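Quick one, T. Sequence first:
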Amino acid sequence: MSTTITPIIMPKWGLSMSEGTVTAWLVEEGTSIEVGMPILEVETDKIANAVEAADPGLLRRRLAQPGETLPVKALLGVLAGPDVSDADIDAYVAAYVVPAAAEDEADATPAFSFAEVAGIRVRYARRGAGPGAPVLFLHGFGGDLDNWLFNLDAVAEDAEVIALDLPGHGQSDPRLPGTDLPALARFVLEFLERLGVERVHVVGHSMGGAIAAQMALQAPSRVGALALLGTAGLGEDIDQGYTEGFVAAASRRELKPVLEQLFANPELVSRQMVDDVLKYKRLDGVDALLAQLRLGLFGGGRQSALPVRSIDPQTHPLLLLWGREDRVIPASQATQAPAGAQVQVFESAGHMVMMEKAAEVNAALRQHLHG
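Structure tokens:
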């Protein structure tokens, strides 16, 4: 009867995550669990978030205790039908072994690599494998590839995934190839050439969505499907207070309320997240670089280029995902989508919809890119 028992395990959020701390259970034993239901909250060194159910079932056992720190894939709880006896569950729990890292990641490849493109050193991650075109992930203004920590592994189950820190972001060199979308798109295409990748599907967030659309316009044969989240490049509106505030913030006290604007649930902005962004912003030249990029793309509080409007979904299948409570780029802009585009708006989510609604976003991405 053990085949009817489904484990709830510590997820792996991001390429560098090795453990997480359980902060609270959100459901009681005996609760009927549906796919996507938040079950418990976990905090990592990057973010705190809810673990959502990957499978349906009856929550029969809560094993992990609040405050307990456990490795990735440790057993947190058990789902099983009412016909499964307590003795069978006890036996399952006793026999469960956390997969060793060496067994689970036999490739033992480094989490990140670096490449030099047009004289700029770029950090990137490359994971997974599949028969079709790789999936390229592009983050937004002031972000980095860790913005996709809930998404890369899920999409990598179907295809190779590539994510990079755009120039001037994350651990890439604090230099820009230009401050307009054509220059940024050209750089990303050169990056793909450097990796020997001819064609990609592209997932882009915010500024990264506008870059993805620009890539499709500049090199249509090298871009397949597009999935754009809270994307720039469709409507002119953008919250100037956010972009100016992000550039100007110089302390934890100033930065935290700015980052909270990204989420419907501001509690997701952990102290570690604030410290990581602040550490990045204190690198030499970063604030001046961000100021230049903001003026080039969002000067005067308006978006300077709208390439998403020119996308033909017949040529580049287009999926637009938005959080209903997006305060940076309002979800109302989805009404300006090109005819034939698919649009999904998620309730109780903000600009970082891929973090707040990870399970639903991942399902939508996998269906759009490989369905």
